[in-house]
Every structure is written in C-alpha cells, then in structure tokens.
Amino acid sequence: MFTAGKGRRVAIGAVVVGAVIALSGCASGDPLADENSSSDGETLVVGSQQYYSNEIVAEIYSQALENAGYTIDRQFQIGAREVYLPEVEEGNIDVFPEYTGSLLQALDPSVTSGTSDEVYSQLVEALPEELSVLDPAEASDQNSWTVTQAFADQYDLTDIASLSNVTEPITVGGNSELQTRPYGPDALQELYGVTVAGFTAVEDSGGPLTVKALVDNTIQLTNIYTASPLIEANDLIALEDPDGLFLPDNIVPVVSDKVDADATDILNEISAALSAEDLVSMNAESVDEQKSSEEIATAWLTENDLLG
Fold first, then answer.
1. What is the C-alpha to C-alpha distance for residues 24 and 85, in angstroms, rounded to an integer?
2. I need a surface site. Which of 58, 113, 180, 221 has the fewest CB within 10 A?
C-alpha cells in the first residue's frame, strides 16, 4: 500500500523528518470516511489508535497545540494501522502518536533488529513522501510476551527462549493482527521451537479482557505493552527479550505537511519531556483511577510547564 522512499531530509532536532506508515490488522469501518483535510491549514486533525495510552499522548499533543492557538479536530480511537495510516497519507489526519519499531516493521517486515537510534534512522529511510516523523521520546511502550507468575514458576520461564521449556501446547491470545506480526506465533515456533496449539482473538490490545483470559488460563501467552499497569497489578511476568525479538518502540509524532515549524517545535518539546516513568504513571491513572485522557494530559502538561 505504501511505497518506501529514500533520501529524506533528516534533522534530529526541530526539523521534520520524512516519514510514514503501514499496518497490520483488520477493521471493517472507516471512521474518517466523511472527513476532509482543511484546505486553509488552520485546523489540524489529531488522531489516535484504539488504545487508551495512545489516546493520552494524542490528547497531550492536542492540548499543547490548542494552547498555542491551533484549532484541533480530535479523531481518537480510530483503530489499527490498517485503518488510520491510509487516512494519514491521504491528508485526513495531520498528527498521530506512533511507535518507532512497530511502525518500521509495518513498513518493512524484514527488519528484525536494531538499537533505538538505528530503528529511528531506518524508519526515516523507509517512510513515504507524504509524511514526516519528528523527534522520538525517551518513553516507549514495548511489546512483550507475557505469562502469569504461576505459569512462569511451573516451567522456569525467564525469557522468551525459555518458552521452549513448556511441555504442554500453548494457546496464544491477543488482537487478531498479532497472528501476522513479525514477532508473532510463527516467530516463536521458528526461532525458539515453541509449540503453539492455537490462537484466541481478544480484541482489547492487552487490556482487561486479555488479562482475564490469561489469568483464567484460557490462554497461556499474550502480548501486553510493557507500560501497562495491568502487568504489576495482576502479578504477570513480561518475559525478557535478550535476542531483540521486539524492536525498540519509542513514541514519535507522525505528521503531515500541514504541521508548520511552530507546531513542530511544540511536538518536539513534548517528546523531549515525555519519560518512560511518565507514561507508566499516566497509564495507571487511566486504568486504576479511571481518569479521562483530558484530565491526565492537562496535569502532565502543567507539571512540565508546557502550557505557557
């Protein structure tokens, strides 16, 4: 769907980097089908995935831009990359929080390793002409293969490779698109000899339904993002990844050419301030305290003196 391009302008600071995106997942509707990009450049459309943590970051972007005088049209909870990336490319979305490694593998599934800096550089090279990526944040929301503490104790599981210790067939659960990810069940079988008995679709991106299926032993293995407070709250174990099966997933703004220099500076300031600890804390406020993304974003921006 997207064609990779080379020779983009790179500026690891306030300058926008050529970039964009591709996908992997299923969706039946197009929530932006009736939306058109503003022709006067005064309104910026900010989107988010159907994932509470991503929406929090999108809301941070939105409030900071509004505070600077931009008119923002929020298009949150859109869905998986298969849905929102074409909308970004077509100019229907102008700002979107993404994750460097996952985005890179969506564009180029052959990429299987790299440091954070290497992944970012490769992303710049792989992205289409229509979009750009700005500065990445320190904060990341890594993919992980996660099990219960009891299952880990039973089979002496510490890292992904140790899943080969398991003597019973393993049922993997997660979003449908997990089945085709470069790090998915096929990779577990091919790289580590893990016997996967089947796949159960649980469409909440590692949320409460996924955790319940894991704790109830309906599934034995799932993909949960490492910044999720559900891991600690439910005594789960995110298996270590010494082989780098998962690429670094630093949060990065993906933008259209409607995002001007001032907006670029604002988004880069957010990336510079957003730490891994901040992300975990904000996710906990959402999940444990049931705070809204608006409330969480305002508090974080105020604490970091980003509302002027």
1. 10
2. 113
Domain boundary (191, 217, 238) is at 238
Distance, CA of 257 to CA of 19 (rounded, Å): 11
Please indicate, yes or no, whether residues 118 and 214 belong to a single structural domain of this protein: no
CATH of the domain at 186: 3.40.190.120
pLDDT values of the chain reduced to their tens digit, one per residue, 308 residues: 333 333 333 333 333 333 333 333 333 344 444 443 333 447 999 999 989 999 999 999 999 999 999 999 999 999 888 788 888 888 899 999 999 999 999 889 899 889 999 999 999 998 888 889 999 999 999 999 999 999 999 999 999 999 999 999 999 999 999 999 999 999 999 999 999 999 999 999 899 999 999 999 999 999 999 999 999 999 999 999 999 999 999 999 999 999 999 999 999 999 999 999 999 999 999 999 999 999 999 999 999 999 97
Is residue 132 located within the same domain as residue 256? yes
Q: How far apart are CA 228 and CA 207, in angstroms?
A: 8
The Cα–Cα gap between 237 and 65 comes to 38
Sign of torsion, CA 83 147 120 74? positive
Whole-prediction pTM: 0.81
> Distance (Å, rounded) from C-alpha 252 to C-alpha 278?
15
